[in-house]
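Something for you to look into today, if you have time. Just paste the record in under my message, thanks.
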Amino acid sequence: MSNSIYTIRNYRPIDFDKYVQLISEAEKLEPTGRVTLPQILAENLQRPNYSPERDLFIVETAENIVGYGGVEPELLIGRVILNCLIHPDHRRRGLATKLFGYATHRAKELGVKVAHVNIAQDNIAAKIVLSKLGFRFVRRFLQLRLDMAKLRWQDINQGALQCRHLQPGEEDKLTQIQNRSFAVTWGFNPNSVEEISYCTNLSRCSPEDVILACDGDKVIGYCWTRTIYEAGMNGRKGQIFMLGVDSDYRGRGIGKVVLLAGLSYLKSKGFQVAELTVDSRNRVACTLYRSVGFNVLTSTLWYKKAIG
């Protein structure tokens, strides 16, 4: 089948229903854990510093959307994150390569220096495409899972007593502790209060989902929890989305305190499983998570390419 039947263009708001349909159909055919709920997908398109009309490209054929390629700008650190999805019935036709071409052109318009792509460790086809496009492997992130039933809840509940929840209006405090905690971390793009406010008010989030450790009025550590929505899971899976400690307070066990408090909170919501993602080179964090029972489930791979 010729590529001439395919059109690649910028996303338009009227494409949303077909965009959701593509993701839902692809997930049914090849389950990967993608979010398919229309509300969450709509919220993702509305995030700050992102314009789907400029940063999202779609592949169309016979008035159906069969693929997309996205550009997520992180201008403060001079990079974009690229992502791509092609419907299984339309693969091996060079569409991903064409989408990356459009995305790279957009990255140049944004003036960034680097493009990153994150893929599953077993995605052989993506590895081949990225290699041909000049991307190289740079980082491995581990996905860890914890069976909540195996935890010693007496110890965990005691840790929770030392913490409190984020309150509405404290988004500036969360912004500050997050940026301080991850200031020199690979791939971290400093957040603004606007971005933090957006994230804590999504349909799957609330300020209460963020656990804080404080020294007087100063926030010195946090554990940000979330609900994972996957097909067939019915919200039974919790996530340690982010965990950080002020650099001036490290080595005092605060990370474990906020982690246990976060797990206690997830348990109170009825979650049976908790997951998280961590840089495989972050030995301190990996040791902490394994100490409470997290085990490696799988991993994802980051690839890098210089722009321009």
About this structure: The two ends are 33 Å apart (CA to CA). The mean pLDDT is 92. The CA atoms of residues 49 and 115 lie 17 Å apart. The first helix runs from residue 16 to 29.
